[in-house]
Specification:
Layout: E1 2-3, E2 10-12, H1 16-27, H2 43-52, H3 54-62, H4 74-77, H5 83-91, H6 95-102, H7 109-115, H8 119-128, H9 136-144, H10 146-160, H11 163-177, H12 179-189, H13 192-200, E3 213-218, E4 225-229, E5 233-238, H14 246-257, H15 259-271, E6 274-275, H16 276-282, H17 287-300, E7 303-308, E8 311-316, H18 318-332
Parallel strand pairs: 2-3, 3-5
Antiparallel strand pairs: 1-2, 4-5, 6-8, 7-8
Helix pairs in contact: 1-10, 6-7, 7-8, 16-17
Length: 338
């Protein structure tokens, strides 16, 4: 890790592990936006990978962060550029310790231990923490087949470490290091937590204090930014700035044209961050209905989600919303030269 000049507790790093995990998650993403990886892998290669790891794909699809949960272990292991060290550390953990870290240390270890032994306890765990999986059967499959999940996950990751990837990674490292002076300049005027909030376009409820702040730009990550925190904070953010296509704009307009989703955006804009159950109460809707609408708004990039213990807080992603509004405005502006 490179220490950022003038900030003894701020670090800048690139990460092979994060790039490979991001590629894998992108391949298993149903949106099938593979533009970033077609320079490395052929369509047949991607199709074969999806077919070979069907169990892994189904588990990743059931996870709320689509597999990025595995990056929680970087807070402890710090194996940013050593795939084997990262893998070996995770495989060395007892089952209850693995799930405790995997789910962000929010679930009681004793409950996890009981859930690994009997279905009744697993049912209770899912009832109390149903945000950890889209469905109970997928959760049960993960608890029963954790070793298979990890074996397939890391075997797939290792298969992506090709000569083509290495060549592309050397190219994007140049782009990654162009970020360093930008981060250094920003930290001259902002505290690391403030800069983190600016990058993510949100105000954090979990605010530390953190021992170290680690900034990791990524080319292949398929979300705008994601944050992990314990004693330290790790902020991973995307370098891939793709403009909204015509299809993107149409799809987003369809999403927010739904009356309930429009009301959610209005309410969050006026009230600030809110819990899902409070949104449900204010709009007289069930919690599952709110969750469905929030998933659609997150896909559009308009909503941030932050977990505080067992509660989800939602807020507006103003970075994404402003970018969309500017794009939409530019499409309908009259050419003054005409």
């Amino acid at each position: 890790m490179k220490n950022i000049a003038g900030k003894s507790n701020c670090y800048f790093i690139h990460s092979i592990v994060i790039e490979l995990i991001s590629i894998l998650i992108d391949i298993f993403d149903e949106k099938k936006d593979y533009n970033k990886i077609f320079d490395i892998y052929t369509e047949d290669y991607i199709d074969n990978l999806q077919g070979e790891y069907r169990f892994l794909r189904e588990i990743i699809k059931s996870l709320p962060f689509h597999g990025y949960e595995i990056l929680e272990f970087l807070l402890i292991n710090k194996g940013f550029n050593d795939i084997n060290a990262f893998k070996n550390y995770i495989f060395s953990l007892e089952d209850e310790e693995f799930f405790y870290i995997f789910y962000g240390k929010y679930i009681d270890k004793d409950l996890i231990k009981s859930a690994l032994k009997d279905d009744e306890s697993l049912n209770k765990l899912y009832s109390d923490h149903n945000y950890i999986s889209t469905n109970y059967l997928a959760l049960k499959s993960l608890f029963v087949n954790k070793d298979l999940f990890l074996k397939e996950f890391f075997t797939a990751i290792e298969s992506l470490y090709t000569e083509g990837f290495i060549k592309e990674y050397e190219r994007i490292k140049v782009e990654i290091y162009k970020e360093l002076p930008k981060i250094e300049n920003s930290l001259l005027n902002l505290e690391p937590l403030e800069l983190s909030q600016k990058i993510m376009g949100k105000t954090f409820r979990n605010r530390g204090l953190y021992r170290d702040y680690i900034f990791i730009p990524s080319y292949f990550i398929n979300v705008k930014a994601i944050r992990f925190f314990g004693e330290d904070q790790i902020l991973i953010y995307s370098l891939y700035h793709r403009d909204f296509t015509k299809k993107d704009v149409i799809d987003i307009l369809k999403t927010i044209s739904d009356e309930t989703r429009f009301e959610i955006i209005e309410l969050l804009s006026k009230e600030g961050p809110m819990m899902g159950k409070d949104l449900a109460s204010r709009l007289n809707l069930s919690t599952p209905t709110i969750s469905h609408h929030m998933d659609k708004l997150k896909e559009a990039g308009f909503i941030n989600e932050e977990r505080v213990k067992n509660s989800k807080y939602y807020s507006i992603n103003y970075n994404s919303m402003d970018k969309f509004i500017n794009n939409l405005s530019s499409r309908f502006k009259k050419n003054k030269d005409c």
